[in-house]
Amino acid sequence: MALAGTGVFAEILDGEVYKYYADGEWRASGSGKSVAIVNPTTRKTQYKVQACTQEEVNKVMEAAKVAQKAWARTPLWKRAELLHKAAAILKEHKAPIAECLVKEIAKPAKDAVTEVVRSGDLISYTAEEGVRILGEGKLLVSDSFPGNERNKYCLSSKIPLGVVLAIPPFNYPVNLAVSKIGPALIAGNALVLKPPTQGAVAALHMVHCFHLAGFPKGLISCVTGKGSEIGDFLTMHPGVNCISFTGGDTGIAISKKAGMVPLQMELGGKDACIVLEDADLDLVAANIVKGGFSYSGQRCTAVKVVLIMESVADAVVQKVNAKLAKLKVGLPEDDSDITPVVTESSANFIEGLVMDAKEKGATFCQEYRREGNLIWPLLLDHVRPDMRIAWEEPFGPVLPVIRINSVEEGIHHCNASNFGLQGCVFTRDINKAILISDAMETGTVQINSAPARGPDHFPFQGLKDSGIGSQGITNSINMMTKVKSTVINLPSPSYTMG
Question: Catalytic center at which residues (predicted)?
């Protein structure tokens, strides 16, 4: 049954076009234009959203600036209370939001529900953590530095940056939005959300949950539209005091244009899975399938290349192929394991990588099969470094296996990548695991498990082209604040109980 845009969400829909959110109300854009959102499964228009104008962005920025000043004066416990309320409303309305995820980004139904629930939990945790972190400051005394008497007390605290611009990606448009929204709000910032086109309607429903929770007008806004029209305009807007972006190459372009603005960026990966001879091969196979193929491989932390010792390669490839044969390929509504990739251009890109590997002699463990945006799971064995798939991120259900003759060879391939988000190593030898983990140039290394972003309070960061700064609830809160100091100068040295 169609739930999106009905019931409490009826006010966010105008005819057949979803409204945008500004100054505490749902509005139709003055442009009179809309942007179509194509369902990846049917390849037909599923939803439409407003094509906001630059003038509307300016108004949103002005309102955000005003609202932020008042919000910074709102007691911390009160901010936390509102976040808890939003979390409860979000979880209560998980069904219509999950339905949007199924139709906009072809996320399997059960995973779509999980994403919404996880997002509610993230908001609540953020409220708790924010109260603790932001409630504590620091006292420094001057006599700890040589040559100084104790005549100065320095009090430091964390203050909001101002207006945070949040740009989440299509693959987790709700979860990766709230992971930016929660920390920004608890820290006293205003928030402007620019959702991805695919995923925009799920994001608008999520924003409405914040609206229903009763946040002040203008504090949260959500603008939709064409990147060509408002993308650069938003990221280069003088009213923006911080940009939190998750996505692909666009992030590199944004970082070059953004100027003196704190950036938090996560820009994809080519997560390597290094398999040693002494690994538990059943565990390896299960994690390669889960890591490489869940949500059709459309995750930054998906296993993107398997670097496996020659002596165990045949056995692992056989085990993985047996598991791939059992995966259900089909509709997201039916909870299939492999669903259509997000767009036709995405499917075409994946196909290009596959064809390049074919020309250069990779071993196809399955027949390459595609219908529309649906690509059947494919394992490519005997991949060599001269193939594009060895280095490029497919963001689809295609996984290359590179056979190695030494651990050094595996580490070298991993570190030669321009990405460095996560990686994993499988071995029963804890000493080798630590040595390899230390040698891998990635933000996180998982030992005996596939890469994953969560739990959401764990630090999450990329090296090299995989990003700037670190996420995870605590790190995001700290990143969205600045330190402010007040120094008390005493007329004469003063020592506690001295």
Answer: 266
Q: What is the CA radius of gyration of the chain?
A: 24
Helix or strand run (H / E) with residue 470: strand 470-471
* 3-state SS class at 171: coil
333 tagged catalytic: no
pLDDT tens for each residue of 346-357: 999 999 999 999
Chain centroid to Cα 286, Å, comes to: 24
- Name residue 379's beta-bridge partners: 399
Q: Any idea what the Cα angle at residue 292 is, between residues 284 and 197, rounded to 5°?
A: 160
Cα(135)–Cα(203) distance, rounded to whole angstroms?
30
The answer to whether 124 and 79 are in contact (CB under 8 A) is: no
Query: How would you classify residue 382: left for phi > 0, otherwise alpha for psi between -120 and 50, otherwise beta?
Result: left
Candidate list 266, 359, 371, 393, residue with the active-site label? 266
Measured distance CA(97)–CA(199) in Å, rounded: 10
Q: What is the tens place of the pLDDT at every residue in 53-103?
A: 999 999 999 999 999 999 999 999 999 999 999 999 999 999 999 999 999
Q: What angle do CA 447, 450, 452 make, to 5 degrees?
A: 105
CA distance 174 to 460: 17
Strand partners, 486: 155
Point out which residues pair with 242 in neighbouring strands: 164
Phi, psi for residue 247 in degrees, rounded to 5: 165, -145
134: Cα within 13 Å, side-chain hemisphere: 31
What's the rounded Cα separation, in Å, for the pair 108 and 34? 27
Residues 6 or more apart whose Cβ sits within 8 Å of residue 358: 364, 368
What's the pTM value of the predicted model, to 2 decimals?
0.98
- Helix spans in 135-218 (H): 175-186, 200-213
